[in-house]
Design goal:
7 helices; 30% helix; alpha+beta
Length: 311
Amino acid sequence: MDEEIQRAILLKALMLIAGQQGIALQEFEKDKARELGRPFTQFNATQQTLREGVEPYANTVRQMLLCDSGRLQLPAGPLWEQIRAFALGEPVEENLTLPRSLRDLQHWRPDRPSTRKNITSDMGGCWWIFRLTSKGGSDRQVTASLLNIRPEFYYETSPSKCIEFTLAWQGGNGESFVDQPPLTVHGICHHHNNQLHFLGILDKLSAPLPTAMVLHYEDGSTRRTHRRNSEGVLFTTSSHRVQISCPVVAVYIDGSADWRGDEYDEKRAALKPWLGSHDADKLAEILPPRAYEHLIRRSREEMVYESRSNL
């Protein structure tokens, strides 16, 4: 995959997060950016289509950022400074501990060392990420994905200054795909405005796709016990090749922040059968009733993210 195509795919993911924040953008320009960026979220886009689309899409976003009238106004803060720098193609140093397509974001790091320590202490380890399936109907299933926010001890031997994560899920019905390796997103996380912003790349069938997620998190709490749940929204492409924005609930897997080496591999492998879409009653062992009820309530809310996530 060409590096410029990877950059454009990442730029699309960055704009998804910016869109969730409700950036200021004139309607006709938003439509233009959405249309030009569409190939970078499609499974079936050809290499030629992607190569031809890189320059028009990247230039459109750059023009919005550089325009004197401020037609693309990103919020203030270190996160958005890095988004702007990335969009404008400003040089950054390399960090080989991240996948190649994420090197440009290696300095997308917490503004204070204590921030990463707080986040990894509060949120490090494995989490179930639950969402309703993207299919309609009254008998909708629940899709379970597995998020791993690298715990603090991981960085004792890693030079990375980012907060790294992986997000794994199984396409379609989990029981039908149990013998297949899960799809995995590798990426980095940033804290901004009481939210954790996750940005990564899903490499499926040699067609990298941006995946972004936002979870609620308040830093600065005097309570230093591990968080047990959160909620947010996921931006990705479904197994039906449809770009989706959906509510999610996150449930911490007890003790997973301490899993190391062989123990981590063994326990993570034992969780694999739960990945994918299942009837809610089959997930009763890992999906608390209150979390399921909350997910149902959120799915009935008006999705304010939907109209903003296609930039």
